[in-house]
Every structure is written in C-alpha cells, then in structure tokens.
Specification:
Layout lengths: L1 E3 L2 E6 L2 E4 L7 H37 L6 H4 L13 H32 L4 H14 L3 H16 L4 H25 L3 H9 L4 H12 L1 H15 L4 H4 L19 H9 L4 H29 L5
Antiparallel strand pairs: 1-2, 2-3
Helix pairs in contact: 1-12, 3-6, 3-9, 4-6, 5-6, 6-9, 7-8, 9-12, 11-12
Length: about 300
Amino acid sequence: MANSGNQPSFVDQGNDFDISDKTMAPHRRLTGQVLTILTMVFAAAVVMPLLWVLVSVFQKGVSSLVFPDIFTKLPPPPGLSDGGFGHAIVGTLMTLGVGTLISVPFGIIAAIYLAEFGRGTKLAYFVKFSCNVLTGVPAILCGLFAYSIVVTPLGSFSAFSGGVALAVLMLPIIIRSTEEALLLVPNELRLASTGLGATRFETVVQIVLPAAVTSIVTGVVLSVARASGEAAPLLFTSFNNNFWATNIWEPVATLPVLIYFFSILPYKASQSLAWAAALVLLAIVLLFSIAARYFSRRKTF
C-alpha cells in the first residue's frame, strides 16, 4: 500500500488505486455517508439510556447523602427522616464475599479442566453447555434454588444463603472468562515447560495460571460487579434485617433489597433514602468496573 498525502491508495503491479471518497461513484459515497450517520445514531441510542440513568440517580440520590450518617446509622422508622443504611452496605459486602469464596475456586478449576485437560471430551462439552445454559437462567430462579438447598434445610434466611445464590450467578462468568484467559496463553510456553521436564500439572500451576492471572482477576471482578446489583435472589435467601448483623448465619440487609423495599413505601423520606442507596450501589458497581478495566489492560505478554 502506498500513501499520497492523506489519500489512501494501493499499489498493484505498478498501478496506484486511490480508494478515497473522491474517486468513488456519487451513489456509493452517499450510501456510505448515510450508513455512517445511522451507525452514529444507533451508537448514541445505546449510550443515551446509560447516561440518563446515571444522571437521574445522581440528581435524586446526591441530595440525600448525608455523611457520615449513611455509613453509621440505621434507617429511620417509616414516616421519619434522617438515618442511613450502613448495615445494608455491610450486608452487601458479606453476601458478595461468601459468593466470591464459593464461586472462584469452582469456576477456576472448571475452566482449567475445559482449557487444559478436557479439550474435545464429551464431559468438557457437557460442562461448557451447562455453563452457557446457566448464563441465561433468570436471577430469581437462582434465588429459588438457593432457598431450596440452603434456607429450607437450615430453617432461616442468612447471608450465607444469599452468597450461595450470588455464587450461582457468578459461576458462569468466571468459568468463561478464565477459560478464555487460559486459551490465550501461547502454547510455546507449555511446550517449553514440558521440554524442561515439568509435568502437565506443574506446567498449568506454575506457568499457565500465572501468565493468565490478570485476565482471571478481571473476570472475577466483573462477576462481582454483576452480582452486586441483584435483588431477586436475595429476597429468597438473605431477605432483610433492620439492624446491624455481622453473623453470616443471620438474615442481613443488602443494598438492592433495601432499595426495593424503600422505593415502594409511601413516604418521601424513605424514597429519598432509596435513591441515595441506589447512588452508593452504582458507585460500587462503577468501582468494580474500573478495577476490571485496569486489570484487563495489564498485559503479561
């Protein structure tokens, strides 16, 4: 390809072919301009709802944020003002912590099997198919599943059961992202490690996993960001608690459930507190997304 100024051109057997807009037929140039404008319009249509949500939540939530009350006080009784939702922030972190501790080991081990040991096997195909199906399962069904296997046997709602429900939601994201990260590791590293006398297990643990760790962390952070905004599964598992709770075997308040309950109350103070909680939850999700973006840009190779 040869360039003449800013005009792109290709060289073929000594002949220059100018592909700039000036050499195009008028109808092709017009078609290209129309399609470019349509692309910009549809791209803007995707971004506008996000901006609208961000602006609305910020405008309605920032006026109700009273520091440090939102982190130190409990919600006020219905009909009264002031107060905070620090107990819901603690409960959200507890359920996310339990969900992360459960889903990360299972997800990474399953991804290692899919990418390193089970390629082409029927079991790997079945695991991958199950993971794809699990990705599309509604969150409320994950809550019902956790309710049947954890809440019913234990006889009470708890942060642990909420973490189990969130772990089911996080698992397919971790498996797929980790599998893709492992497949991106150059095969030459595996061959070199094997050539030096390392076993396949040693190669995976000491060479492949460290090389893909940044992408794996990105997937984990994205899964946590997705689970942090789910309210439906927590209604059936951790439910709610109007007081401070630090025991994972007790019901706990979480930000998504608190937003749901306070938004349907007929009191303006409660609705304002729900908007403030929505702004805090949005900030948490944004922080997780920024962290995922940071880790994804750290290249190992």
